[in-house]
Every structure is written in structure tokens, then in C-alpha cells.
Amino acid sequence: MASLDEELLMDEEENRREIAYIREQLPADLKEKFSDDQLLFIIDAIGTYFYTSGILESNSDEVDIDMEAVSDFVCSEAKEEGEGTFDPQEVFFVVEADLDFQEQNA
Questions:
Q1: CA 37, CA 74: separation in Å to the nearest integer?
Q2: Domain span including residue 58
């Protein structure tokens, strides 16, 4: 069993890989739009959306994810948490890349 420090290091490495993947997938004009901290916030907010929306409780093998709803949720969370104002159309691309990353690493 990994120690807490080892788990934290593995989480940090996973975050770095995910951020790098997301940056690769974003359109050229958005690649540098978000800081690493902002991308981490967005990733966490996406996770919060899935935990609070009930999607994870679905028994279906395939779940229809409304990426616009996820993007809107992330933008709302960012504003509420004082992280700034994000454009849902730009966040949509991050959501799409995050979901692709999750599928590839499931």
C-alpha cells in the first residue's frame, strides 16, 4: 500500500499528465489561455459536477453527458469560488479534452 506522500506524488504526476494532454487537445488560441492552476480548478469542478449530478450512479454502460451543462457548471463554480469568469464556450474544449483523457486512462 502506498504511503500518503507516495499517493500525493502520484496524484501530482497524474495532474501534470492530464494538463499536458488537455493543452495538446485545445485549439491553438486556447492553449495558453488557462494557467495550470485554472486547469486544475476546471478538472476538479468537472469531477464535482459528476459527483453531484448523479451521473456516476447510473447503471447504464453508456451515459449521455451534456458537455454544455458541464461547462456551464464549471463557469458557475469558478465565479462562485472567486476563480474568475470563464467563457463556457472555451471551457467546453477543456471539458471535452478532460473526458477524452479519462476515457483513455480508465
A1: 14
A2: 4-104
Question: Which three-class secondary structure string do you get for the chain?
Answer: CCCHHHHHHHHHHHHHHHHHHHHHHCCHHHCCCCCHHHHHHHHHHHHHHHHHHCHHHCCCCCCCCCHHHHHHHHHHHHHHCCCCCCCHHHHHHHHHHHHHHHHHCC
How remote is the C-alpha of 62 from its chain's centroid? 19
Q: 63-89: per-residue pLDDT in tens?
A: 778 899 999 999 999 999 999 999 999
8 Å CB contact between 102 and 25: no
Question: What grid cell was written down for 84?
Answer: 474568475
- Rounded to two decimals, what is the model's pTM? 0.86
Structural domains of the chain, count? 1
Are 40 and 15 a contacting pair, CB within 8 Å? Answer: yes
